[in-house]
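Worked problem 6 (solution included).
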Amino acid sequence: MASNSPILLVEDDPWTRLIGVVLDPATSQERRAAFTDFMSPDEPDFAGWCDALRARAGAFYPSEVRLVPSQAELRKNLPAAQALVVESFPVGREELARAPKLKVVQKYGAVLRNIDAAACAAAGVKVLSVRRRANIATAEHAFALMLALARRIHGINGLTSVEKLSAAKLPYKPFDRRHTPGANWARISGMRSLHGSIVGIIGLGEIGREIALRAAAFEMNVLYFQRMRLPSAEEAALHASYRPLEALLAQSDWVVPQLPGDPSTRHFIDGARLALMKAGACLINVARADLVERNALIAALRSGRLGGFALDPPYDVPGRADDELLSFDNVVLTPHMAGSPRTNGLRDIEELITGLAAALSE
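Solution. The predicted structure is:
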């Protein structure tokens, strides 16, 4: 690689590794092959996609991409960096003081709470962000799961004939149309509406905020809890009201834990917190399976107190055919599909790389 190639520091993450695949010729063939396989469900010509993006990157290709797994490694490499991509690592005055060549900081996301934008502006460092399409898709998937439970889609799909209804022990018995409407002649009970219900979101990060925005569009009442309450202007923009965790669990018809995966959040929803939830409420988990304690979850489902549960990704990869969760008719499990299709992530990386290239060319 040319000695004058730009040096780009990137917070190591399975998706941000793709930046090196595109921009750094030193990236291993093993990693290139792994990404080609990973992208194959939605981008069969991954090599062609990379070539097209390199052409759009201009002088930014080739670059030396240094993946950093920790804040300490980030600081160690900052003196040589012209550009920096972070998701969660803080960037403030201390980091900027170590980075005399730095021209641009790219947040791999839209919420800049880990970046001191004022300090960057004072240092002449541009700050970029990307509203990640994969996060938007995850929020959409959360609502697909909510709607599946609310409208019982997974259970009533195809129940349109006398034969199918009889097999499901739902005999066809039409209403007297001389006097009444004819809807729901299958006489299926237990339907819900999202409109007017209360959704409690635990964690208003990137995905939590996307969920809140869509909940407001459904005219749901949005409650949230996290360690740091948002400024009132942000709450108003998201149509969200703060509640302590116990109050959120007790008041919500839908509970959506949207927390990062680390030892402090494992089994965050345990038996005690499940017991605090409103009877008949549903739990929607599109973050990480182990946020919810599995044994306590099954006990709550068996008791009938929990109104429904939906999960993506599942507890086991791959899942088990004899998983007890599959025996409940108010449970929906999907095989880690929330952020799909892959083109969401590809378009995020396209926006990120072309934005960085434009900033470095200024």
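Discussion: DSSP finds 15 helices and twelve strands in the chain.
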